[in-house]
Amino acid sequence: MLYLTDVDSKKHGTFCAIPKSNTLGKSLYAQSWKNALSLESNDYSQIKIYARLLPEGDSRYKSLPFRIIEDNLSLNGFSLDDTLSLTGSAGTLFVFDTHVFI
Known about the structure:
Layout: E1 15-17, H1 22-36, H2 44-53, H3 70-75, E2 84-86
Antiparallel strand pairs: 1-2
C-alpha cells in the first residue's frame, strides 16, 4: 500500500491491521474455501488451486465470510484492541500479508 498524501491519524484514513494475525487469517481463508468447495484436503496449496479455478460469479463465493468475526479473534488470542494504526508521509510504502486482519 502506498500513501499518496500524508496520513497522520485514524480520522485521515490510516491503514489498520492486527500484527501477527496473518496465520489465523490464512487458516480461516483455507477453511472457508475448503468448506465452500466441499474439499477433503487440508493442503493449502491444493485449496488455493481449486479456489482459483472457480468461475467468476459462482454462487459459492457468497458463502465465504469476508468480515472479521470478533469471536474468531478472541478465541485465538487476538482482540480488536490489538489493532495498529499505520501513519506515514506521502510516499510511505507498506508491504503486508493479505491474510492479516485489517
